[in-house]
Structure formats: C-alpha cells, structure tokens
Amino acid sequence: MFDVSAVGFAVLDILGRPVTRIPEGGRADFIDEIRMTVAGTAAATAVDCAILGLKTRMVSTVGEDDMGDFMIAKMQKFGLNTDLVRRDGSVQTSSTILPVRPNGERPALHVPGTATTFRVAEADMTAALDANIIHIGGTGLLKAFDGAPTLDFIKRAKALGRVTTFDLIQANPETVALVEPLLPYIDHFVPSIDEASQMAGLSDPVEVARWFKARGVKNAILTLGGEGVYVDPEVGEPFHLPAHDIKVIDTTGCGDSFTAGIIVGLTKGWSLSESARFAGAVAAKVAMGLGSDGTLKSFDDTVEAMNTWPLKRAN
After folding, report:
1. What is the spatial distance between Cα 44 and Cα 254, in angstroms, rounded to a whole number?
2. DSSP symbol at 244
3. Assigned fold of 2-20+30-308
4. What are phi and psi of 132, to 5 degrees?
5. Residues 18, 248: contact at Cβ < 8 Å?
6. φ and ψ at 308, to 5 degrees?
7. Run of H or E including 125
8. What is the pLDDT of residues 45-56, one digit of tens each?
9. Every domain of the chain and the residues it spans
10. Percentages helix, strand, coil for the chain, rounded to the nearest 5?
C-alpha cells in the first residue's frame, strides 16, 4: 500500500536559534526563532518523504501526553499514515531541547521516553512491512527494539523482497554489536561519517565504506556534512559528490533528510548517483531553515534547487 514504511525513532524537537550562551541565574536572552518539529531518524525521514510526495507510513510509539498529541497531529498534517503510531502511557514522549548555535551546530538535552519502549507488535507486523521500501531508523536509542527484534524485523522485510534503508543515532564502538548482525540485510546504509567512523574504528571514508561492505552492506552511503557524500555502491565505482554552497541555519535532521532523498530516488528508479544528487539538495533545503524539515517544500522545488544551486568546490 505504501512507498515507504519508516520504522523506529520519533522525537519531539523544541529548537531555538541563535543561542550563544545559557543566561545566568533566572535571566533571559532574546533569540530570533523557536519551533517544535517532528524529528528522529525514522520520523524526520518519514516527514520529508511525505513532503516530497511519497505515500508514507510511520511506525513508532509516542506517549499519552500533549507532546504525543502534537506529534500525531503534525504527522497527519504532513500526510503521514499514523495507524501504527502506538501510544504508551508509562513514559513521556521522547523529546529534545536544541539550542542551535549561530553556525548551525546544535547541542542537545534529551529525554529518551517512548524511544526506549518502542517495538513492532506481532499484530502490526504485516502492515508495518506493507511498503516497497522499509526504512529503519534509530538503532542505538531503541532499547526494546534494538538487537534481536530489529534483526527479526529486517529479515522479514528481505524475505518479502523489500528494499531496506537504514540509519542509526548516537553511534559508538558498542553500537557495533547491535548493528553488525543487520548489515547483510541492509541495501542502503546511510550514516554520517562521524557515526560510521566510530563503529568501524577508521576515519577515511573510503576505508569506512569498505569496512561496512565487507560485512554485507550492499550500498554504503556516508554523509560528510559540508563536504557532501561518499558512496560505495553495490554496482560500479565509488564516487564523491560535493554539498551545495548555502548559508547553513541549522543542521538538525540533515542526515535524516538526505536518507529521504535517497528513498525518493529509489522509488523513481533513478541511479544511485542521481539519487544522491537529489538527496544533497534535500539536505540543503533542510539546513537552510530551523528544524528537521527546514525549508523543504516539494519535490519540484527540490529538483529545481538540485539543478540550479551552486556546489562547493572540492578541497
């Protein structure tokens, strides 16, 4: 029924910019902008897929609280199917406060909340897998779903012939134990170079991509922040694409939006290089605004940006 089913981490982000300090005592600083957004390695990708025109299902858990109400209402406003967004009254909705610095960086204050209790119930399994592309996002924070439940889920996806995309969050060397069993079932692995390097124990993108491919990943797609993306594909030679030369407002959700761009390209049957070009424009659109959807408007608007916005010169 769906182009993509996004499974895993959903979080309410409360963002403010620009923040240069935390005021002393009970004093206040004035800033330009505050937003609340649907975010997370699964939910932000799902929102951006919906904005870009894909029929998208969200599979996650939120709390029985005002924040959960906001999350579901906002997802539905973007056109997401939320039938499989379950409610859990035992903990609050996963939430993050993000004071965004003038250069776009964003330290975080995070309550794990419902991210730790999320699982795909057996009764929801068939519906959760009813999409051409299955995106799993958030391994590392999904305490109840990480490990054997995720492995079982992705095995079922591949047994049904689904295309799988995968991203994680807050990776460290210990995350390897959770992710390594999944790697042979991942068609498109889209981590940041920072997180991928932490797992592989390597720093050079070429070596990092080889490390993951040697363990079963078909297409290793490493986002490099302002340096663009390095791709080691299943078929053909590895390649690097530069990022767009833009004024960065906020980097929140840029990696998630890049994954959405890859998913859109896959649904349209584009080559991986063309999909990565489009994904770079999606990420640029997000980086130019506050929050994980930024200034992203539509598929056509993003294609125009892809074809007209300047690229950074390679170092």
Report:
1. 9
2. B
3. UDP-N-acetylmuramoyl-L-alanine:D-glutamate ligase (3.40.1190)
4. -65, -35
5. no
6. -125, -25
7. helix 125-128
8. 999 999 999 999
9. 2-20+30-308
10. 35, 25, 40
